[in-house]
């Protein structure tokens, strides 16, 4: 165990040293910090940390993975890999901290997916809040996208159902729908899906979408 700890310490040192050798490319590697096992830290931490043999093995494997050459484009941690870019985007687009819990509850769309749809000039933004909320909080209506407003409640999207064919002629048009939390938008999304609209994305609340930079 003592020898193995030293091995990990050497690996970790090599890793830290390598990250100080900065080339423009691997500067981005710092956005995905490698897993450093607790057992490789100071001796006081080592004494108080219990690591099972399996955890130790996994930590060691993770460390070795993190040490793979960054120039290998097959690495998920390559600076320009899709994975790394996704992580970076998620960090940049982090919104209200409860987005992930509402995401599960109201089937909110991935931020990345929303970003893609917002770049599409065909996309229609559908606001299902009340007039009063819009007057008080403002609205999300980027100049390059069409904006629609039909108030819905958490249980009633009937006005939307009635007006949909007029407001959104094509069922393949991407629609980004939002309210205040994503709840009413979820009801609206289901109503639209039932009408055959199959590119409907729930962006959650105005607070979630207003910060999205295009
Ligand atoms: C539907 O529209 C009518 C007329 O504008 C309005 O009075 C009613 O409150 C709306 N229903 C909902 C659920 O928003």
Automatic annotation (TrEMBL):
Pfam families in the record: Rhodanese
Enumerate the spans annotated as Rhodanese domain: 119-213
Q: Which residues form a coiled coil?
A: none
Q: At the top level of its lineage, which domain of life is listed?
A: Eukaryota
Q: What does UniProt give as the signal peptide span?
A: 1-27
Q: Which PROSITE patterns match?
A: RHODANESE_3
- Swiss-Prot/TrEMBL keywords: Signal
Q: Which PANTHER family match?
A: FAD-DEPENDENT OXIDOREDUCTASE, PYRIDINE NUCLEOTIDE-DISULPHIDE OXIDOREDUCTASE
The protein's name in its UniProt record? Rhodanese-like domain containing protein
Q: Which organism is it from?
A: Nitzschia inconspicua
């Amino acid at each position: 165990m003592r020898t193995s700890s030293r091995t990990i310490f050497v690996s970790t040192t090599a890793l830290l040293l390598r990250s100080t050798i900065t080339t423009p490319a691997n500067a981005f590697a710092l956005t995905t910090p490698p897993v450093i096992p607790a057992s490789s830290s100071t001796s006081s931490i080592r004494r108080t940390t219990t690591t099972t043999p399996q955890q130790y093995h996994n930590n060691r494997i993770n460390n070795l993975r993190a040490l793979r050459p960054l120039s290998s484009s097959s690495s998920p941690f390559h600076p320009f890999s899709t994975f790394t870019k996704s992580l970076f985007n998620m960090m940049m687009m982090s919104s209200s901290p409860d987005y992930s819990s509402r995401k599960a509850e109201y089937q909110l769309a991935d931020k990345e997916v929303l970003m893609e749809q917002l770049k599409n000039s065909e996309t229609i933004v559908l606001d299902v809040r009340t007039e009063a909320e819009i007057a008080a909080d403002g609205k999300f209506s980027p100049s390059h996208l069409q904006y629609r407003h039909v108030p819905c409640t958490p249980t009633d999207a009937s006005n939307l159902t009635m007006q949909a064919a007029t407001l959104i002629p094509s069922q393949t048009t991407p629609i980004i729908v939002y309210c205040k939390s994503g709840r009413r938008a979820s009801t609206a999304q289901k109503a639209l899906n039932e009408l055959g609209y199959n590119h409907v994305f729930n962006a959650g609340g105005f607070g979630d979408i207003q910060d999205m930079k295009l």
